[in-house]
Amino acid sequence: MNLAFFDTKNYDKPPFERVSKDKNINIKFFDSKLNYDTAPLACGFDGICVFVNDTIDKSVIERLCEYKVRFIALRCSGYNNVDLKYTEGKIAVFNVPSYSPYAVAEHAMAMLLTSVRRTHKAYLRTKDFNFSLNGLVGFDLYGKTAGVIGTGKIGRAFIDICKGFSMNVIAYDKYPIENSDIDYVSLDELYKRSDIISFHCPLTEETYHMLDKSSIEKLKRTAIIINTSRGPLIESKALLKAIKERKIGGACLDVYEEESDIFFEDYSGHIVEDDTLARLITMPNVLVTSHQAYLTTEALNNIAKTTIENILSFEKTGKCPNELHCLK
Ligand code: NAD
Fold it and tell me: How far apart are CA 234 and CA 228, in angstroms?
């Protein structure tokens, strides 16, 4: 079994090499992201392994089928970068539905705490022996209202963390969990009442730009936005405008609308062309991390384990419990 592994980073290799050892899977690690131009690298492989910013659109799927690639193993949970409808009946696709919801939820809280207690600024100051506290006034999370959008695995882990801080938690989900103790409200009410809003729903046609110019108008002027889900949930130009006009309190962004050519790469010393991202980063109340929320040892090990199990199950039985199908 030969597997082409796209968009490889140095932290991907060790867990995959460990888990695939003695499993008769030869992995060829490519640095390149998968797209139409790099798809020929997959020629001669049984399957490919891809991540969040690889492009698996119609043109790439056609190329993969031409090369007789039999499966696409996503080493992530989200699959908005795959044209699932077009893969149907042509090539199998599987994902890792859960590897550590805690990793992502804990990162969301880490960003929130950093943002409201200015620890990122304090760290830099004390490194320079500057012990002044000016400009570092934060606020208590105790008693504040957290609005959680999407109460799946990560959203629920984040709710538990917020409750640990004695915050009031309200939530919105298109498919609320029945008979749960979650305090569901409408999306409008959540926007209106929340001091903190954290996005944990998937990117779909419906959730694309769910935070845009008009929904921003509904928020408290002090609201802090956290997005660890997918960048396009938030219309970034509208977010930047709202920040400039002091219409919201701040934003913690682990994902960004146009991240695919930027995140995971080192652009220090380069001129970044994306003016919206560059301007957002200059804002004192915006914190950006580079799609890092999932990046813990536990999560990387679980990702490798489930991905390899998915592949072995598909090889053995022609089926995989984590196979994705288009619902439309
Ligand atoms: P999940 O499938 O367990 O939960 C998603 C929840 O969103 C479900 O409860 C679903 O009912 C709800 N939902 C669906 N459509 C909705 C809508 N229109 N409005 C409101 N809610 C809606 O997924 P999860 O494991 O909790 O992951 C959530 C998202 O986090 C993923 O889709 C992925 O994009 C993102 N993610 C990011 C990272 C990272 O490193 N930043 C890592 C893993 C996952």
Answer: 11
Predicted confidence band of residue 326 (pLDDT cuts 50, 70, 90):
confident
Cα–Cα distance measured from residue 118 to residue 111, given in angstroms and rounded to the nearest whole number: 10
Burial class (CB in 10 A: 0-12, 13-18, 19+), 122: middle
> What is the whole-number distance in angstroms between the Cα of residue 141 and the centre of ligand 1?
24
Which residue(s) pair with 172 in the sheet? 149
Residue 289 near ligand 1, beta carbon < 6 Å? no
Q: Does the beta carbon of 115 sit less than 6 angstroms from any atom of ligand 1?
A: no
Count CB atoms within 10 A of the CB of residue 25.
18
- Dig out the tokens for 106 from the structure: 């804990």
Determine the Cα–Cα distance for residues 196 and 3; give it in Å rounded to an integer. 42
Predicted confidence band at 128 (pLDDT cuts at 50, 70, 90)?
A: very high
Nearest to 224 by CA among 234, 135, 136, 296: 234
**Which residue owns the Cα nearest ligand 1 atom 11?**
175
> Amino acid letter at 3?
L
Q: Best of 12, 81, 154, 234 to mutate for ligand 1, by most ligand atoms within 8 A of CB?
A: 154
Range 220-227 average pLDDT: 98
Residue-wise DSSP of 271-303: ----HHHHHHHH-TTEEE--S-TT-SHHHHHHH
pLDDT: is 254 or 326 the higher one?
254
Tell me the whole-structure pTM to 2 decimals. Answer: 0.94
Mutate to test the pocket of ligand 1, among 201, 287, 327 (most ligand atoms within 8 A of CB): 201
Q: Over 70: is that where the pLDDT of 328 sits?
A: no
